[in-house]
Queue: 2 jobs
Job 1
Amino acid sequence: MRASELLAGAAALLASGVSAEAYLGFNSGNTLPSREAKFKKDWVQEFTTAQNLKNSPGVFNAVRLYTNIQAYSQTSEPIEAFEAAIETNTKILLGVWASGTNTIEPEIKALQNGIAKYGKKLTDLIIGASIGSEDLYRVSVTGIQNKSGVGAGPAELVKFISDWKKAFQGTAIANVPIGHVDTWDAWTNGTNKPVIDAVDWVGVDEYPYYENGKGNNIENSGYLFDRAYDAIEGAVGGKPIWVTETGWPYVGQTWDQAEATIKNQQYYWQEVGCRKLFGKVPTFWYNLRDSNPDNEMKFAITDNLSTTPHFDLTCPKTFKTTPKASSSSASATSAATGTGVSSPSSMESGSSGSGSSGSGSSGSASSGTASSSEPATVTAPAESAVATGSATSVKGVSAAAVAGMTLLVGVFAML
Ligand SMILES: *[C@@H]1O[C@H](CO)[C@@H](O)[C@H](O)[C@H]1NC(C)=O
Ligand SMILES: *[C@@H]1O[C@H](CO)[C@@H](O)[C@H](O)[C@H]1NC(C)=O
Ligand SMILES: *[C@@H]1O[C@H](CO)[C@@H](O)[C@H](O)[C@H]1NC(C)=O
């Protein structure tokens, strides 16, 4: 390989690594548990709590939204979370609802309306956009078996991604990285490869709690998570991975071996959040507050937006999930192949209220959105959470970036 090629490769690696700041945030649907619309003040409360959580390992100053449209708006009114984000300096991962519709025009319009209203104050906060959420899961064998609601296939998603790029070409957000969020087994399904090719980053919703039949007890949760993560890494050809939903419920039925307790919620925070994600991978925890009334599992880490969570958020210095245990654990091993269960949120969509087509979702987990669109699978908790933050988040330069820099330095030395 020639030095110039090496240099180009190193630069690409560096660029991709650096672009993946390790954002910290929560998910946030556009409705409350009562199914009423959330308004600016509701998001200001969420974002303020997220940034001020006691003993937080970093500042949760990012939010993942499920839609650009204010709940129940028929006219592509921009979601009021935008205004709250501006007021609290919260970074925004935009969401676009993409199932049960043949156009994302209302979503595009709502964002355009928001940009017309707030300009650079809004566009400076936008860190990414996800076209779709668990759409591929819902059309997969498991998603259909689980009656997860209307989804969308790879060709539709690729078209929507292209529609989005065209709409924002030459605007202030033209370079915002585009992703798609799905369950891990959607990403390892070869039929969905065109979606991988079309995105800048790959979003994954992963809930070991829902992985029945795989030894999903809490002590195994870190191994199940790693298996899924590694499987995606192997399938996406070096595209950055963003963990768009993960968490453990503190209320709900025992799901095979998985028990919903506060103690387990803390264990999962430590063994998956602290060990694997925070400061390393862009992460949107599920969740700060529950908002999907149809999901009997409750994932909130705090009550009534208190800044004192159910458990101490402090990260430990050592972990129980170790590489050695991983390979010897029979259950972890078998887990990799199973089906992925999606997340609770899947249902959440926040999609636009009625405006969107209403595809049905049956879903139980969903969060409440008014919209028709929530997906509903049981699987995903999907609700909404929010986060925000003010100041600095835990930003870390990713390992890939470090590797890229090292490589770059080496190349310069060769020249
Ligand atoms: C793989 O993906 C395709 C397209 O999304 C879907 O139709 C198919 O059911 C998936 N396969 C499995 C085993 O879920
Ligand atoms: C949260 O708020 C509800 C409604 O005001 C109240 O009934 C409940 O006791 C509160 N929970 C906690 C833990 O403060
Ligand atoms: C989805 O379906 C599979 C297979 O039918 C089942 O084992 C699993 O529990 C279901 N997941 C959810 C979340 O319902």
Job 2
Amino acid sequence: MQLGSVTLIFLFIFSLLPSQYGAEVYNITSSHPLSDGETLVSPGLIYELGFFSPKSSANKYLGLWHKSIFPRKYVWVANRDNPLADIDTLASLRIGSSGSLELVDGKHSSFWSTNISNCSSAVLLDNGNFVVKDVMGAVMWESFNNPSDSLLPSMLMGYDRGSGKQNFLTSWKSENDPSPGIFSAGLSAELPAQAFIWINGSTPHWRSGPWDKSKFIAVRSMQSQYVNPFTLVDNETQGTRYFSFSFDKIPGDVVFAYGDISSVNV
Ligand SMILES: *[C@@H]1O[C@H](CO)[C@@H](O)[C@H](O)[C@H]1NC(C)=O
Ligand SMILES: *[C@@H]1O[C@H](CO)[C@@H](O)[C@H](O)[C@H]1NC(C)=O
Ligand SMILES: *[C@@H]1O[C@H](CO)[C@@H](O)[C@H](O)[C@H]1NC(C)=O
Ligand SMILES: *[C@@H]1O[C@H](CO)[C@@H](O)[C@H](O)[C@H]1NC(C)=O
Ligand SMILES: *[C@@H]1O[C@H](CO)[C@@H](O)[C@H](O)[C@H]1NC(C)=O
């Protein structure tokens, strides 16, 4: 009896908690923008997207973080180049009249946009991919194809030679400044494939050694994996080359972080 009522009280308190920390929503539509103070959560409450201001910064960004990692690690930031003012509490992420998903300040000036004219809804998936869909539910834009500084499990890092599209990572300028820093990480074009960290986009700073079927030969921490979580797919016909790793085989899901990209964390 006693135990039963304690459990009930606990459940009740837990079910009240989310609303004390600002509203959580599961979907952005043209009639339901995401306002500052609200967050978009993935169905299993794994990832969360919302507004944040880095410590001692007067800037505000739209970013995405793992809900249960503290202190928060922002794995994707939308307006890296174009911060909102921290004091602007009327900022929102909305599907505008142009049909694009856009980040606007209190005066409705755009600070970031997907530049796509038929967006209908936006949701966050449990793998951390923020996807924007058209009215038929087809994915029109996704954060996994527009990476910031972090590679999450099941994300593809690499390039498409045909379109010239590169899914490379770029470090933050500093710990409290998400604007693009000098380090970038990606795959080289020659064979065999190698991962590189470049300075200023061209000066090699670190390289992984060649890919050897299941790992980069010079990355020590890759050698000891009992179950191989890494994949590199080189598709000559398609002109694509992508590296990825799968979930729950590696502790921690963040490969590159901040300006200190030199200590590669794979
Ligand atoms: C989000 O809203 C759109 C448009 O109303 C709807 O088609 C879709 O099913 C919704 N998705 C979720 C996860 O609620
Ligand atoms: C949208 O277009 C603007 C202006 O051309 C560009 O600066 C911005 O990077 C684009 N946004 C995305 C997400 O590609
Ligand atoms: C939205 O636009 C894309 C390309 O711009 C197109 O492939 C897709 O069919 C459009 N969706 C709808 C529902 O019109
Ligand atoms: C990178 O660019 C910055 C700014 O232009 C410059 O000061 C620095 O020397 C460059 N570093 C390298 C290794 O190219
Ligand atoms: C390469 O791409 C082609 C065309 O999309 C596809 O048919 C083929 O299965 C791919 N090969 C590999 C090894 O993924």
